[in-house]
Specification:
Distance between the termini of chain B: 53 Å
CATH class of the largest domain in chain B: Alpha Beta
CATH architecture of the largest domain in chain B: Roll
Bound molecules: FE2/S2 (inorganic) cluster
Oligomer: heterodimer
Strand content of chain A: 25-35%
Shape of chain A: globular
Radius of gyration of chain B: 16 Å
Helix content of chain B: 25-40%
CATH superfamily of the largest domain in chain B: Beta-grasp domain
Largest sheet of chain A: 7 strands, mixed
Strand order of the largest sheet of chain B: 2-1-5-3-4
CATH class of one domain in chain A: Alpha Beta
Largest sheet of chain B: 5 strands, mixed
CATH architecture of one domain in chain A: 2-Layer Sandwich
CATH superfamily of one domain in chain A: Aldehyde oxidase/xanthine dehydrogenase, molybdopterin binding domain
Structural class of chain B: alpha+beta
Helix content of chain A: 25-40%
Radius of gyration of chain A: 28 Å
Number of strands of chain B: 5
């Protein structure tokens, strides 16, 4: 009898350790002889470095060494590698691990102090004298490409990183035959990472032993191993990268950072382990963020609100360097046309350098921006034609009978974007019911009589999840009968241990508690990609399923020989193979492992290799497309511009759910991140490129007191693209959220004619729009 | 030479004597001086609440308190919440059951803040729980599992 775990709300296996204070995050680790590092960071957004004098810092008692670019030596004097090369990148600017002669954003690493303690290292930073020659800085993306705009890099003639576009269908025909053409322009601002654990690195270099080892708070240890080895021009085999417990990732921890190189070199030069823990101010200034994107769009539609075409231009802020290539602008384009069947699209992106921190994906990457844009155009059509926004959506959704639906767009890597499965209109129906949408007008009218302004907003999305190429798993039964499961995929709180243990336990026939799970250590598993883009369940899910099944087959085959029974009569339960109907005939998985790998002079059973083990790289044959529809209900105070989210409802489909409790947690957490984007999170730079919001008094994150209860309901449309039918769930909460909130605010303020062209919608901005509406109404 | 003082304090029921730099925060002392790394530093400027511990039973941000100020006081950290025999505190049990944690980084501060809160407010409403943890930032969970856990734990603790 098979014990079923898949689909059950199994409590997480990682929790007892974390709940009792026994997690192991980078800063919890210590090593013999370990030194501590602190970085001096650029105080100017754009400047030439005339000279750096580190002598006073080096003289401070407790300081061991101070390194600048020059101190690293000729061998280590080159720029960082471009990890995501692409033909559209016209100016491939990556940074030096420590700035050479120019700094291009506030927070760029300029020097590092290595000392007995972090406190002493930080004291020494104040004693380093840098002579800067200030250069003009470019901050505003709307003017960055104009003639005469300040240049982000002194040796260039333009701030253009490159251009790209997504174009398919006959766009001219679509606009020629349209009954209506409407346009909208809007700015989208997404904030930073703000994982509660900042970044941190420990490096140890042992040239005669293990080589270079790095413990780093990261999402992609294998990418870091490759990037670091390449940069050092050393074999990957001699670099070990471990991501221990990581206190949140959300995208910005998916890259490769200058500090990972510098701390490695510091450990090498000092011949001692070196630790660096980012402080929160550094996190604001130096951890990559997702910033401004301006969209100018035109939509062509019929009198009924059927959309025929979408065209326009995006201006995408890239920051000072391009550590993630064009991942972000690309993932802003690929979600077009959203959940809708839009026959023609032509949208281009200009990617521009600014003197701000380099950009990276943040939860959802460009997808929340792309979906926001499509949803804004749906709202625009709805408003201009006076058709209910739910109805406009119904008239445009991709229908189940169109699946698999090829949008015309191309995913990164060149594959066609194909919606594999889902029923978008049914999801809308579910969320409308969950949110009591049909009775909202009564609620709104009743509240209005009390002088309160309620509004409701809908947003639908698709999400390409589970990108390849693979994320493998090894399953091995040990002689103890315990099952070692190893994978590359790093966890930052998504519960991978539990999810994978459930899959292996069910398909091998052991208890989840008997699984020894290890991940994210390049010395434990040979290859991996990274935890990004909601890809782990759709890649590790199938590989762990496949590996467990293979181990089971092997165990049954051997047990059948030993027990002299037919394989068909055998079953594995709780780690014991039994013959059906003959309960006394049994052998444990541990005993089988020993039979396969006997002591010296004995023989491995004929036809077997000596390990009760299997490795699989099975994944998804394409990107499973998850989908969702959300409804936000808000109350706005027109006097103060305060927005309160009263209710938030989600209908989501991520295919088969392995552990609904974990999926639920991902959705709710994701929605709150999206509400933060819509209402609170704003990283402000002044026109000189000085960051103005560098603590949690100035930069607002969503708090429990401001968040509503979030109601979630699911559909489970199995993806045909992998063996488990799963789709990713990590970002589906975030992607549609801002559009739902913004639509709800506009709905609440309909009598003021408020049209929102920017988020986060903070009170100052909103009262400005309300005042404008009031004046216009009076005129 | 760094300015140091000798202090004596109780942490999770155990007495400690140490010589600490006057500028060392209580949080850094617990983590790096005593090796009690369950207490986390999320912002080091008093907003995120990850570093919360109980000092004489009151929830305190250990990044804003100096170690020397803890001289003569009793500190409880997340490591001290469970019983000696390993039985989890009702809050820990409830966090586990209601998926009140993902990455676990905010969790120690959530648990200590709520332990102090529930002692003074044994039967809180959802709104009161949300206010009580409004000084604790969680980037992962969206707070819902935490709130549900706190309400459930309150029930359990009242039953006892
Ligand atoms: S670390 Fe103390 S409040 Fe954030
Ligand atoms: S669980 Fe990650 S910050 Fe709360």
């Amino acid at each position: 009898m098979v014990v079923r775990y898949l689909g059950a709300e199994v409590q997480r296996m990682e929790d007892p350790r974390l709940l009792t204070g026994h997690g192991r995050y980078v800063d919890d680790m210590t090593m013999d002889g370990m030194l501590h590092a602190a970085f001096l960071r650029a105080s100017q957004a754009h400047a030439k470095i005339r000279s750096i004098d580190t002598s006073r810092a080096a003289d401070l008692p407790g300081v061991h060494r101070v390194f600048t670019h020059a101190d690293l030596g000729e061998k280590y004097s080159h720029r960082m590698n471009q990890l995501y090369p692409a033909p559209v990148i016209e100016q491939n600017k990556t940074q030096y691990p420590l700035a050479k002669d120019e700094v291009c954003y506030v927070g760029e690493a300029v020097a590092v102090v290595v000392a007995d303690s972090r406190a002493i290292a930080e004291d020494a930073l104040a004693l380093i004298d840098v002579d800067y020659e200030t250069l003009p800085a470019v901050v505003n993306i709307m003017t960055a490409l104009e003639d005469g705009a300040p240049l982000a890099h002194a040796d260039t003639t333009s701030n253009l990183v490159g251009k790209m576009r997504s174009a398919f269908g006959d766009i001219d025909d679509a606009f020629a035959k349209a009954d209506h053409v409407f346009s909208a322009g809007f700015m989208q601002h997404r904030g930073g990472c703000h994982s509660m654990e900042t970044r941190g690195v420990i490096a140890r270099d042992d040239p005669w032993g293990d080589g270079l080892s790095l413990w780093t708070s990261a999402q992609s240890p294998y990418l870091i191993r490759r990037a670091l080895a390449t940069w050092l021009d050393e074999p990957e085999e001699r670099v070990r990268v471990v991501a221990p417990d990581v206190g949140g990732g959300f995208g910005p921890k998916a890259g490769f950072y200058p500090e990972e190189i510098v701390i490695s070199l510091a450990a090498r030069f000092m011949k001692r382990p070196v630790k660096w823990i980012e402080d929160r101010r550094e996190h604001f200034m130096s951890t990559t963020t997702q910033r401004d994107q301006h969209w100018d769009l035109e939509v062509a539609c019929t009198n009924e609100g059927k959309i025929l075409g979408l065209r326009g231009t995006i201006t995408h802020e890239n920051g000072a360097y391009i550590p993630y290539g064009i991942l972000l602008p690309n993932s802003s384009l690929t979600p077009l046309p959203g959940a809708y069947s839009i026959p023609a699209i032509d949208v281009g992106v200009n990617i521009v350098f600014t003197n701000t921190v380099p950009n990276s994906p943040v939860r959802g990457a460009g997808r929340p921006c792309g979906i926001y844009a499509v949803e804004r155009m749906i709202q625009t059509v709805s408003r201009n034609l006076g058709i209910d926004p739910a109805t406009v959506r119904r008239r445009n959704y991709v229908r189940p009978d169109q699946m698999p639906y090829e949008t015309g767009a191309t995913l990164r890597g060149g594959a066609k974007c194909i919606y594999d499965s889902g029923d978008y209109e049914a999801l809308l129906d579910k969320v409308l019911e969950l949110s009591d949408y049909s009775s909202f007008k009564d609620r709104q009218a009743a509240a209005r009589k009390e002088g309160r302004f309620l509004g409701i907003g809908i947003s639908s999305c698709i999400e390409d999840t589970g990108m390849g190429p693979y994320e493998g798993t090894t399953v091995r039964v040990e002689s103890s009968g315990k099952v070692a499961v190893r994978t590359g995929a790093a966890s930052q709180g998504q519960g991978h241990h539990t999810m994978i243990a459930m899959i292996v336990a069910e398909n091998l026939g052991v208890a989840p508690e008997d699984i020894l799970f290890e991940s994210a250590d390049t010395s434990k598993f040979p290859h991996g990609v990274g935890t990004i883009g909601s890809r782990v369940a759709a890649n590790v899910g199938p590989s762990s399923f496949d590996a467990a099944k293979k181990v089971r087959e092997k165990a049954l085959k051997l047990a059948a020989e030993i027990l002299e029974a037919s394989e068909a009569d055998l079953d594995i339960e709780d780690g014991v193979v039994r013959v059906n109907g003959a309960p006394d005939l049994s052998i444990t998985l541990g005993e089988l492992a020993i039979k396969l790998s006997p002591a010296s002079a004995l023989r491995v059973p004929a036809g077997f290799d000596p390990l009760l083990e299997a490795t699989s790289y099975d994944g998804s044959s394409g990107s499973p497309i998850a989908c969702g529809s959300n409804v936000a209900e808000v109350e706005v105070d027109p006097g103060t511009g305060e927005v309160r989210v009263l209710r938030y409802s989600v209908a989501h489909d991520c295919g088969v759910m392995i552990n609904p409790m974990i999926v639920h947690g991902q959705i709710v957490g994701g929605v709150v991140h999206g509400i933060g984007n819509a209402l609170f999170e704003r990283m402000i730079y002044d026109d000189q490129g000085q960051p103005l919001t560098t603590n949690y008094g100035e930069y607002l994150l969503p708090l429990a007191s401001e968040m509503p209860r979030i109601d979630v309901t699911h559909m489970e449309t199995p993806s045909p693209l992998n063996s488990l039918g799963v789709k990713g769930a990590g970002e589906g909460g975030t992607i549609p959220a801002a559009a739902a909130i913004v639509a709800a605010i506009e709905n609440a303020l309909e009598e003021y004619g408020v049209e929102i062209d920017y988020y986060p919608v903070d009170p100052q901005y909103l009262t400005g729009l309300i005042d404008k509406g009031t004046v216009q109404a009076a005129e | 030479m760094a300015d140091t003082r000798d202090i004596e304090l109780k942490v999770n029921g155990e007495s400690h004597a140490a010589s600490v730099e006057t500028r060392t925060s209580l949080g850094d002392f617990l983590r790096h001086g005593l090796g009690l790394t369950g207490t986390h530093m999320g912002c080091e400027h008093g907003v995120c609440g990850a570093c919360t511990v109980m000092v004489d039973g009151e929830a305190v941000r250990s990044c804003l308190m100096l170690a020397v100020q803890a001289n003569g006081h009793e500190v409880t950290t997340v490591e001290g919440l469970a019983d000696d025999d390993g039985t989890l505190h009702p809050l820990q049990e409830a966090f586990w059951k209601h998926h009140g944690l993902q990455c676990g980084f905010c969790t120690p501060g959530m648990l200590t803040s709520l332990a102090a809160f529930l002692r003074d407010n044994p039967d809180p409403s959802e709104r009161e729980v949300r206010e009580a943890i409004s000084g604790n930032i969680c980037r992962c969970t969206g707070y819902q599992g935490i709130v549900d856990a706190a309400l459930d734990a309150a029930k359990t603790m009242q039953g006892n």
